[in-house]
Amino acid sequence: MSDFLTISREAHDRLVSATYQSRGFTADEAAEGAKLAAEAARHGIRTHHALKALHLDHLFGSAVGGCTPGAEIEVVPSRFEGSEIWNANKKLGQSVAYRAIDRCIELADKYGIGQVAVDNAFHYLWGGGYVMEAAERGYIAYTNCTSALAEVVPFGGKFPTLGTNPHSWGLPTQDAVGFPLVSDWATSVVAMGRVQALKREGKTLPPNAAVDKDGNPTTDPNEVAALLPFGAHKGYAMCLLNELYGGLIGGSLPTLRGRAAQAPDGEKTTTAFYFHVIHPEAISGGAFAKGRSQMENLKEVIADIFGHGNEGCILPGQFEAEARRRSDEAGGLHFTAAEIAEFNQLAEEIGHAGLEPI
Fold first, then answer.
1. How far is CA 115 from the centre of its chain?
2. Which domains are seen in the chain, by residue range?
3. What pTM value is reported for the model?
4. Angle of helix 127-136 relative to helix 27-42, nearest 10 degrees?
């Protein structure tokens, strides 16, 4: 952690919340935006903490009509009791996502499974944060979204027509391994937030992650015009799924998303979210070997997978859990000097106290 400095979470949250409120967001929205950003930083998510969130809002959100401070969520009538459809009315994505995962849990408690589809949304940033929270409360959770812009070239294609489109799963494995299993990744080799972070730090991208304006591979974050899907055709298929979910929910054409100035009359430019929560009891067959309980059986399955010489393998969510432990032991959130300098530029712009390492 020698490259990182520790910042008080309270000071971080005050600055992030004040920045959101300076842009017209309500106190609740600002607090939810600050919470998600802090949890991302706490878990070592360098690509989707507050700097990314506030940058995204500045470019595509409240300043240009892509996100509406103080908007109210409209629940659209549905004949399915375990499902809800929401019109977010461009409300801050983090506020919508926290409410959606909570509602899915309420539905799962009643019906065994709950889902919420969200139309007319604005990017919710770190999907892993929402499913992790559900998993910590004992549920199986999943979310996907369409990203703010089409920045990914389809496998075999030339032009970016897909978002970085993440998938996020969370499972309640705390008793088995000490932390919730969280599988959370963009379907591009790297997220655009990672490109921005590397640019900030003066570092290069891995090979075969991005192309320049002429379609040539580049590792220079300053030359990136589009990203490539991970895993060739397999990652491309996972990326495509989010666009298809979004299309079924009501989302915009990918190449118009986030680009209101280019959209013909009548076309939408908003993102779509999907949330899904399962109560573990709803999928329990009950016939576990040797009289084990459901969670005891889960623990044994994990132990079997990571036995047989595989003890050194990494579980999804392990890096995040280790980053969380380091943050908590340090008593704050970890940022680089370059990130702190950028935070302090934001503070100066709104006349707020800056951040100082503790």
1. 18
2. 1-68+317-358 (1.10.1530.10), 69-316 (3.30.1370.60)
3. 0.94
4. 80
